[in-house]
Amino acid sequence: MSILEEHIASSAGIGISASRPDGKEKARGDFLFSNDLSSEDMLWGQTLRSPYPSAKIKRIDYSRALAMEGVHAILTAGDVPGENIFGLEHPDQPVLAFDVVRYVGEPVAIVAANHPEVAKKAVDAIIVDYEILEPMVDSEEAIYSDPIHPEGNVIRHLVIRHGNPDVVGSIIVEGEYEVGMQDQAFLGTESGIAFPSSDGGVNLHISTQWLHSDRDQVASALNLPNELVRVSLAGVGGAFGGREDVSMHVHLCMLAMHTGRPVKMIYDRNESFLGHVHRHPAKIWFRHHADESGLLINVEAKVILDGGAYASTTSAVLANACCFSVGPYSVPNALIEGWGVRTNNPPCGAMRGFGNVQTCFAAEAQMDKIAKALSIDPVELRLLNALETGDTLITGQEITGTAPISEVLTSLASYPLPEAGTNAILELPGGTGRTTDKSHVKRGIGYAASIKNLMFSEGFDDFSEARCIITDGEVSIQSACVEVGQGFVTLVNQIVEETLGLTEVTLLPVDTSIGSAGSTSASRQTWMSGGAVLKACEAVVDALLSDLASESGISYEKIGLSLISTDGSDSIGIVSALHGRNYDEHVTHRHHPTFPLDRNGQGDAHVSFAFAAHRAVVDVDEELGLVRVVEIATSQDVGRILNPVQAKGQIEGGVAQGLGLALLEELILVDGKIVNANFTDYLLPTAMDTPPIEIAALIEQPEPGAPFGAKGIGEPPVISSTPAIVAAIRDATALELSRVPVKPEDIALTD
Amino acid sequence: MGIGKTSGEYELIVNGSKFSISDSWLGESLLYVLRERLGLYGSKNACEQGECGSCSVMMDDVLVCSCLVLAANAKGREIRTIESVADGDELSDVQKAFIDTGAIQCGFCTPGLLVTIHDFLDSNPEPDQSEIKEAISGNLCRCTGYGRIVEAVQLVSIRRSKRDS
Ligand code: FES
Ligand code: FES
């Protein structure tokens, strides 16, 4: 153990339930979210969007709109100063549509006016002549039909061939599954403000997940060097993947630069549903082969993800869906074929769980089918097949880190079940509606387990920069890591306290004046930016020890020992040693490299893996098709708990989103148009829908190479909670239920 | 200003102070006026359709969604917003409990929930879990799954009964 590691182990910052440094401001209503920013002479921006899923733009006439009192600018494709194209992984989407529109909601023109209502009226007054085309809205047909985009309809076709895919099992189960389009539905809609700057550049304040990716895309569209586009983080009201892509960013900057005035934009809820990517709807076919003992011997699958009109992160989402399609189980032979497809549906991209969600729902249903066919307990079957350290994934990658799936499953299964319901009205599936007849209520129990890759995969150069600055005994930390609510700001304080013993930490403004921290996604920021902050603090300690050594002539190691000794009488303590000294350490943190998948889908493409399992208990009113989730219990592989309360919050929040996908949440499309883009018809779980979430165990087996041994914890809760709930409904009703969300008619209106 | 009818001049009483609103459009909601004209950004706008509760304020001691109230119709009424919940620098007991239990993540739902919970606990000081859930079911939170929030309400209830006994 290094001196520093000993120091870390003896300190108190990590592992305690420190409270959020921004909690007070947020509780007072003083915290500034992106939509709370304003400026004296600002204008309001508004976007004209396509009403059609596929059409040619014949003519745009905005003369009447521009003549309206209070309207300052109307801009269209021809006004984009640089490349009229952007994209998170790959540029393929116009900033403003110029010849065709490919989905309902695609931006066509932007307006700046002196009042948001004026801007809306101006948008309504713009005349666009469209030649309406037949939209391609079926992801399966899209694979073989005429391209809707110059780059074709197949964004990625991925085949994973592992072992001998021709092996036939004595038990074969087959199924077709579907996952509907879920939305991140963060509460704070897209918003921001852009200021033109006197050097010809622009300052953009926006809620996002990745400042530097935004900066690069905006600069290219504005034809500006990166240095002239300064992106600052404005308070983020939740993200969950939906803010990884550029939305209004370029539009705001164009309007600000054109008018020479600050421009603010806020999407309303309806526009927010149109203005960001969604979770990919999926069609999945599985055939599992097992031997008579239940051991998996081969898995075949076909996976189609509907990427909508533009690529966004479809390629990486598909990789996740395929690489982890079989779940946290050892499978010697597999043939998985996946397609990420373009259609004229709304674009899809990142959402918490990122591809693993879709195939986990299907694969876990398959596991239950095998258990049923063999009359094995579902947990036993999962334990029998559970991956362990040293096992190989279907991509040929060996798991070198921790893989406590057995511990996760065993602890969950032994957690006590909730008691039978009291039959109080609020505890029946009909709830406050008082519609449930008790005699129709059946209870069911279901289990599911999951695997999630942490951080970016397939050879991406994934890094985060951080600075630790000590001035006269005061510490400041700089990082471009985006806080979306997950608690990175708390963790920074904990890391500083752990390493430097200082409790007062200033987190410098989060902007592009430092290098990238990467995206707040992929369960990566604790490892990546937490790791960077840790390294920067360690670099300060290191520099301090070197200085003390050269000043005193005592060896570095000895000074280290005396500095950190908790009982040594001659310990001067790091805080007082730092006093009067100044340091500024700037570091870059990387995880170990990953590699692309080869043409058989084999390769060490992923960094590390986290596992979770969920058990759902439901009461189902079979007559009305209503489901009340009584309890969700979970165990999760966390590596090490850094902040117990924040960990609990991540788990509860993630499970609620998994419940949403299981029972409530779906953007319903009719001919490519979302027909429920509002909170009246897109149903988010309320407090009444969300059951107590019991944490059976958090398994702490430190992950080698991870800062503090901690694994990311944000995504696993959302992945296996959905299939556990559906398994519980199946247990209660004996229905097949191969599609989520499960709706009342799927239960009540069956023969 | 390009949107036709203005509502002339009217006065709002917000957090005990009088504000005169002039040259505003007749269709402006109370939420819009609080935020964009009075700079009281604590009330949030997540749906502007009465579904999420993040714009919750008290109007003459009745909990309302300020997005559904026309500002011009609120004249003469006593409006209290999240900005009045703390007593100067001193946080209210519910605000403190939110911080203590980890009920705040992104915090976008927080102001609306705090206004709602203060109102609820005034009328039901010792609620059970399902009463709490019902009381906050008009406030959406996308981050927390509500567990920490329910715990915060329970904590306040316990702390208040200890204080009073
Ligand atoms: S903003 Fe008023 S209820 Fe949602
Ligand atoms: S804390 Fe983010 S919506 Fe509630």
Give your account of this protein's structure:
The complex is a heterodimer of chains A (751) and B (165). Chain A contains 20 helices and 26 strands. By secondary structure, chain A is of the alpha+beta class. In chain A, a hairpin with a 2-residue loop joins strand 23 and strand 24. Chain A starts with a helix and ends with a helix. Residues 1-11 and 565-569 of chain A have low confidence and may be disordered. Chain B is of the alpha+beta class. Chain B has five helices and five strands. Chain B has helices at residues 30-37, 93-101, 110-123, 129-135, 147-164, and strands at residues 10-14, 17-21, 56-59, 62-65, 78-80. A five-stranded mixed β-sheet of chain B has the order 2-1-5-3-4, sandwiched between helices. The longest helix of chain B has 18 residues, at 147-164. Chains A and B meet through helix 2, helix 4 and helix 17 of A and helix 2, helix 3, helix 4 and helix 5 of B. The complex binds FE2/S2 (inorganic) cluster (2 copies). Residues 45-55, 65, 67 of chain B line the site of one FE2/S2 (inorganic) cluster.
